[in-house]
Amino acid sequence: MIETLILLTIALPWLGALVVWRVGDDRPTVQNAVAVGFALASGVAALGMLPLAKPGTALSFAVGGAFGDFTFVADGLGVFLAVVATVVGSLAVIFSVDYMRGEAQLGRYYALVLFFIGAMAGLVLSSNLLLVFVFWEITALCSYALISFNNDDPKAVAGGIKALIMTQLGGIGLLAGALLVYAHTGSYDINVFMQQAHTLPAALLTVMAFGFLIAAAAKSAQFPFQTWLPDAMEAPTPISALIHAATMVNAGVYLLARFYPAFEAVPGWRTAVVVVGLLSAFLSAIMALVATDLKRVLAYSTVSQLGYMVYAIGAGGVFASQFHLLSHSVFKALLFLGAGAVIHAAGTRDMRQMGALGKHMPFVRNVFIIGALALAGIPILNGFWSKELVLEAGLAHGPLWAYLVMLIGAGLTACYTLRCVWMVFFGAPATHHHVHDAGKAMRIALAPLAFGVLTTWLLAGAFGHLLAETLPFHEMEAETTLSVIEEVVTAPATLVALAVVGLGLLAWWQRGVLKGLLYALRAVARLAEDSFGFEAVNRGVVRWTQSVAEALRPTQTGILSWNVLGILAALIVVALILVLGA
Amino acid sequence: MQWSFPMIVIVVVLGLLGIGFYGLLIVRNLIKVVVALQVLAKGAMLALVLAGELAGQIYIGDSMAITLIVADTIVAVIGLALAVQVRRHIGSLDIGHLSKLRR
pTM for the full model? Predict the structure, then answer.
């Protein structure tokens, strides 16, 4: 049963991608129906796995030889992330029905989206590291193609290439780790590796642990790779929601959470993870405070919230990080799709040209505010509970200075969220186009997400139970929802965090008074607009990669004889290595 | 010197691979390229069967060879179909002329 569901979750979106592409762009209604149908079916299959989740290998294909068996798992972590990818992904597909209406090349769009969703499900459900790597690269490729979907716009193409190159850096770390695992355990299986992790040489574990940290940081747009994510904003907005909430960026956090038990004892690794999360969370919160592009604000907030998850893993709070991932997926999908509705209506992404849109689009305003409050960490929305759990895990097991910085970050989050809501929906009206509220398909996608923001925190107990029962290598205690609530409500740290969030909100209301302070900090603001110089570093890496590729271009002659000669030479080299090595 | 059966097969395999690679390196006629590719693939197929035999898993060797036959046939058919199209469009089967299509 569970074997079938695993295959369906991965294969249905891929099958849908083929079908929607075959339908052809002259029948957009059929394309919409096919895409939504296959995405929803895969979401249902993923949900069906939830009660059946179990530890260990659930499905295995013997492919023999050097690849090892292609194994799949259906444990709590994998199933949960597959559900996030397919369910939030389907909502983004439904939203696209309205958002992409009248666009050319709808077939390419839907095919890539569905391929993306299936690859993400495959990534979290497979337990063969080589297979994980393959799926990892497919998601990178899909995100590149979707970010540059408007391929006649040079900015979109540049953003896509940047995302591809930066995430490739991470892919190298993952591949190196996978090959090291194979060299030392004779298997690519993650579970075999976890069993034998403590018997492996310490130097090897160290290399792997930091390799995987680089992979995760690149994929989840963490420090110092954080600048590709805001540039990815050139994509159509449902794609941004997909990348930010359902797929892609979750993969890095997933990787860290999955391998945490193997790496926790590596000296310095946990501190490194905490520092990466902390810098990402704090720096991007400041960047979000000065950005004026609505989608960029949300992108920086994603980097910042992912920083909280990474920080929680570094502090040992795997449950807290995954719970925050769940909350974040729901409220960030809501925020992005809401922002999509706003941009669709207002025709601009610049918040300075918005203002007072709330009157014209009350539905979007209401759901957006719900999402924003969750992002800011206001009780009783899901973001509040999970962020408190993250901060508590940090206070209990992490260094105190890190906790204090994260606390300030929470205050900044509240401040930039309020600023964003105010500039878009309230304040003085700017130039006004003909603004309309969200269409029907948009509402169908937004409503369940808003409902989720209000309710997913009630799943804390069931979710903790799922993780604790099916992850044999992670040490986790199953708690009931009630005890989680009690823990959060009675902890004094919660009051401190709430006070900081309140201060953050107050800072925005009193922005007139604080003007002098802001003036003094204008140098910081200018630095923040430049991404603290990391933009230049990342751009340098991208330019260097492109120039190397350009330099290697003459080797692609397209002449058959030369290519055959190359193959022959490689064959001889391999044969020599085999003969001399043996 | 005593020639064992596997050694004879290996010599044949190397011979087929040599002819195939030589053909691919030298010939310019598209149909001859397809023929050279076929010879090369037959060498690989023989090597697979031999490897299966020597490893004591003749069935795996056999099934790989059968898979290769199927793939090989498709390659031949598509290659020849392309040759027909190339001939129709540029009036020549010389692959050297093909690269001029770039501009």
Answer: 0.83
